Fold:
Amino acid sequence: MWNKVPQITFIFWLIKMMLTTVGETAADYLNFNYKLGLPLTSLIMAVMFLIALTVQLRADRYIPWKYWLTVVFVSILGTLITDNMTDNMGIPLAVSTIGFSIILATVFALWYAREKTLSIHHINSLAREGYYWVAILATFALGTAAGDWFAEGLQLGYQTSTLIFAAAIALIAIAFYTLKINSVLYFWLAYIITRPLGAALGDWLSQPVKNGGLGLGVTSISLLFLAMIIVLVGLESYRAHQSQLER
Structure:
């Protein structure tokens, strides 16, 4: 079985960044525009995620549209999980941020204990892919909680929170290219931080000006970023097809 996840390239991070924003804005769009309520919206997205995940798990190699479709739904579901905990269960964002951090650390510990690696270059068994997707879901839920906590709970605002998380990503990139040690650690740190960055960025772009946003609306941002994601995933699919032909 070939590796089931994409190579870590600039396009990977570009798609991931936009997907984190889409997860934030799409969850808000589905909840408020269709007035389904958080529980029903979450249930629908959970079913869609399980369908997409089943398609992904049945593949024998990395197929761009299957992988990224799964990430789309896990992004939206992760956002909705945190929103339910905050709005319906009254759990403070600081508590959910700490809680999801513990869950993610536990997943990594179990993953490493069994597989002796957390490398995403060898997601080539059902067990490793299972750990991978549970970790991904935890990062999205954690990122949503952390992004909202910084912007709303700590009252830093969406713009300031976006800049803080962007600076954190920049520091991780600098450390990776200068120290050149433990690339697996740097990958997961960057993957985790891109989620709160996307959450803060999505809110900053879409929320009304009176709430500290730019007022572009969740519909416009979701459609714009989805269109860009489709183009980039199409490019990934073309490259994968060309690679298959060369082999």
Summary: Residues 64 and 237 are 6 Å apart (CA to CA). The first helix runs from residue 10 to 33. The chain has a mean pLDDT of 87. The helical segments are 10-33, 38-58, 64-88, 93-115, 126-153, 158-179, 183-206, 218-246.
